[in-house]
Amino acid sequence: MATVRIPALRNLLLGRRQIRLPNPNQRRWAQVHDVRFLATTQVSRNITERYREKLDRKAREEGLSDIGELKAAYKDQIQELKKKDSVSIPGLDALLADEAAPTPNTTTQSQNASPDGLSQRPPPPPSPSSADKNSTIKSLSEILDLTKARALPEKELSAIWRLRHASSSNSLCAVIPATTYTSLEATARRHPSFVLPVPRGEGIGAEIHFLQWVFDAASCTATVLFTQLAEYKARGEWAQPHTSVTHYWDSELAEKPGVVLMAGSVVEGRGASVQDARWLVMLLQRFYGEEGKGGTGSDSAKRRLLEEFGRGDGAFSVEKLLEESEKLA
Q1: Where are the beta strands (DSSP E) in 141-292?
Q2: What's the confidence (pLDDT) of residue 1?
Q3: Cis before residue 257, ω within 30 degrees of 0?
Q4: Quick one: three-class SS letters along 18-56?
Q5: Low-confidence ranges of the chain (pLDDT < 50)
Q6: Are 92 and 5 in contact (CB under 8 A)?
Q7: How many Å apart are CA 173 and CA 294, to the nearest integer?
Q8: 266 contacts 224 by C-beta, under 8 angstroms
Q9: 192 and 125 in contact (C-beta within 8 Å)?
Q10: At residue 260, what are phi and psi to the nearest 5 degrees?
Q11: Angle between helices 178-190 and 298-310 (to 10 degrees)
């Protein structure tokens, strides 16, 4: 079982720089202290507490007095499993870390260290090889008659695609220009994970959501999974995404009429609405599309945020993330 390390948000938001309070004209949801509150006051599911009864029983079976002695007895096995199976998403580690964000010279082993040996780290997206062998995503040819679809003009194809998803209130769909998708994918392959905020109303703040790109060569798809950051803090590798959005690539449709089809869905009861999901998809396109590629002004600011998060740079700023995201509002 993959092991995961669950720290907290304190260091990133209470760094060496004094946090600047927003000016009176700034939108209230962009207040950084509100984000810290939302991201750290969720109920935490401590692994030891959840399985205390089973651990106590195991300790007695081994002839040990308590869980502490059980951990000590299995310390070597726990560390071996951590070295073998643990994974790291630098930006997410830094965002959730109690201690200072790791420097470039920090080793993976030091990032994995934990006092009780039972903490956990979120799993990475499936590797391309595993996705090829065990793909559960339908290809576009399983959804549409591609021979007929390729013969349609863009307007008719778009109408058919939207009508196909109109019956579900929790569905998302879009028809994206192929050139726009090419930019999205190029940025996503360099930065397969990131965080985005969702505003929660005046005086409340914003809630941070974690995103992961998963590329599946077998079905020619690229799926984005959105999960509440608090969900990762609470459930570790068992964290469940609330929204998945899949882009379906077909070379002929990309050439003429020059589009890529996208569809997704929102799972009820996981802390996000369809409106939240639409907002996240819009932000995704702003950070990963033409603006996320670089350039000057706000474009370069978005690129820097992607790069800083990707390498776990301590310079990554939630305040700056909110400022850039707010420009879409």
Answers
A1: 171-177, 193-199, 206-216, 221-228, 243-248, 259-266
A2: 40
A3: yes
A4: CCCCCCCCCCHHHCHHHHHHHHHCCCCCCHHHHCHHHHH
A5: 1-45, 85-87, 98-134
A6: no
A7: 27
A8: no
A9: yes
A10: -125, 130
A11: 40
